[in-house]
Amino acid sequence: MSKLLIMSKPDFDDIFMELAVNLAKRSHCIKKHVGAVLTKDTRIISIGYNGPPAGTHNCDVEFPENGCARDSKGSCSLALHAEQNAILYAVKNNTSVEGSTLYVTLAPCLPCARIIFSMGISKVVYLFSYAEYKGIGVDEGVEFLKKFGVSVERYQKELEVQDSLI
């Protein structure tokens, strides 16, 4: 006699955020690992993680001690952000991101928020606060998006993540 195994179906939010967390593990950044998933109508249209542009080099290989050089604001001089990579890959492959939802492990910074808004992405779900990570008072990117009508939510469920994501 066989047993019937009943499995609960995960929400798409859970599936996409877990994928973003796993994509972050692909990052070659020394400072922070971030992953992003772009979806439309419960389908994945693009993925990304932070790191130097394709065809350049990997920071953890070229600069294993300290990572790449920093710009005048202390940010990586070479890295594209995870959400930038996801958007760029979609557009490069003629996929419209308008009306899509972005799942990202770190709330968008202000420059990424401007890109997200300009590309017509309608919703952002993020796991960790950019402001908390950077030690600043407010998530400027989140506030920008909300001000201009983009739906923004912080993912509330517990996920198992590596220290480099927190």
Automatic annotation (TrEMBL):
<keyword id="KW-0862">Zinc</keyword>
<dbReference type="InterPro" id="IPR015517">
    <property type="entry name" value="dCMP_deaminase-rel"/>
</dbReference>
<dbReference type="Pfam" id="PF00383">
    <property type="entry name" value="dCMP_cyt_deam_1"/>
</dbReference>
<dbReference type="InterPro" id="IPR002125">
    <property type="entry name" value="CMP_dCMP_dom"/>
</dbReference>
<protein>
    <submittedName>
        <fullName>dCMP deaminase</fullName>
    </submittedName>
</protein>
<comment type="similarity">
    <text>Belongs to the cytidine and deoxycytidylate deaminase family.</text>
</comment>
<keyword id="KW-0378">Hydrolase</keyword>
<keyword id="KW-0479">Metal-binding</keyword>
<feature type="domain" description="CMP/dCMP-type deaminase">
    <location>
        <begin position="11"/>
        <end position="139"/>
    </location>
</feature>
<dbReference type="GO" id="GO:0005737">
    <property type="term" value="C:cytoplasm"/>
</dbReference>
<dbReference type="GO" id="GO:0008270">
    <property type="term" value="F:zinc ion binding"/>
</dbReference>
<dbReference type="GO" id="GO:0004132">
    <property type="term" value="F:dCMP deaminase activity"/>
</dbReference>
<dbReference type="InterPro" id="IPR016193">
    <property type="entry name" value="Cytidine_deaminase-like"/>
</dbReference>
<dbReference type="InterPro" id="IPR016192">
    <property type="entry name" value="APOBEC/CMP_deaminase_Zn-bd"/>
</dbReference>
<dbReference type="InterPro" id="IPR035105">
    <property type="entry name" value="Deoxycytidylate_deaminase_dom"/>
</dbReference>
